[in-house]
Amino acid sequence: MNPMRTPEDFPYITNIHVNDCYTYQNFDILLNDDKPFSHLVLTGRNGSGKSTILSSLDSHLFRYYSSTGPSEHIHQLEGLTKANPKTPNISRWKAEIQQIKNIAIGFNNEPSLLNSKYITYSFLKSSRQSKPEKVTTVTQEIEFLEQLNQENSSEFFVKQFKQYLVNKKVNQAFDILDNNKEKIAETERFFQLITNSLQRILEDSALELVFMKENFDFEIQLSSGQRITFDHLSDGFSALVSILMDLFMRVDIIRKEVKDFSYNPCGIVLIDEPETHLHLKLQYEVMPLLTSLFPNIQFVVATHSPAVVSSLQKATIFDLTTKTTESERVVGSSFSELMVSHFGLENEYSNIADDIFEQINHIVKTEANPQKRKERLQEALTENEAYLSPAMQLELESMILEIQ
Ligand SMILES: Nc1ncnc2c1ncn2[C@@H]1O[C@H](COP(=O)(O)OP(=O)(O)O)[C@@H](O)[C@H]1O
Ligand SMILES: [Mg+2]
Fold it and tell me: DSSP letter string over 132-177?
């Protein structure tokens, strides 16, 4: 069979039965019937079990991806446990068995197809940073790829990102010597893709990725002239760039393997809190960026961000606290609508707004002089303007008018 899966014959997740995520037991998460797949967004209060479900998904998917599958793995671990009842590994094995047994996954194709180096699988945890290791030498291509395949964790991929880029640059130099136009263009395209994404994230369309051959390092040169290394990105950029480093490398390795640099591999990628450390605008942009760069990957994310929830199309939004699925209507919903309808706040007004109301009430009750009262109210309004939605501002203005 052709190893290059298409979205039509790839085993995407269609439903998850949760036996236990410590907080809740025995319920189903049914994904929408979007074709060819629906992304999944898990929401819910702290401690509702989002990360637990992602880890359990990882235990299943990683086993399918790297070997024979989760049932066989449980069988092996149980065998080991029986044969070695006294080893200190027992508790780890038991935890691993438990993590697999926590959930059962339904797919729309045979899940054993996940056991392939031509698919993209990754689990990006919430504590992630883009701190690639310093590069001292060029490594041999085959050994390097073997090591990446063996280690596989996202942490390891991110650490090796600079090494990957340096190897590419050096190989490109050989390609230039050989006048291998096709390969030179492929490498160019890879670097262009990274540059374009950095331009989008850092909102600088003239930004460039500069290779410094003296010390085998890369710097991001902003249009202002300022240069930053990957180690000095702010936490937010760092958390986002680490996702990109991981996925760019995985996808590029597959493209090289199948010798087709326009191939978009199919896959499943789990991300815990894609919004980690990001300001609001980027929270809206992170998932659209990822789904446009990796169109055949099904993303399963856990989030607290209304911006993430409302930015993702063809997604099933499932809230663990209420066990309900939101319909597509949340896409493009306003922040305040979502705060009320999905995140279960009583109203769209934040605590800050409540404080402002309190302050206004206090002035009304305590300031007897009408002229002074008016001035103080106007002052309070101006002072807090930035925190008020237009609707609230109108409400307060009319309140002040009524007082006079
Ligand atoms: N291995 C474990 N054994 C027992 N309880 C656990 C284990 N792992 C997590 N929990 C508990 O499960 C609950 C859900 O945690 P978590 O999945 O991290 O929630 P969320 O990501 O939604 O904030 C928490 O109360 C946590 O203490
Ligand atoms: Mg969590």
Answer: PPPP-SPPPHHHHHHHHHHH--HHHHHHTHHHHHHHHHHHHHHHHH
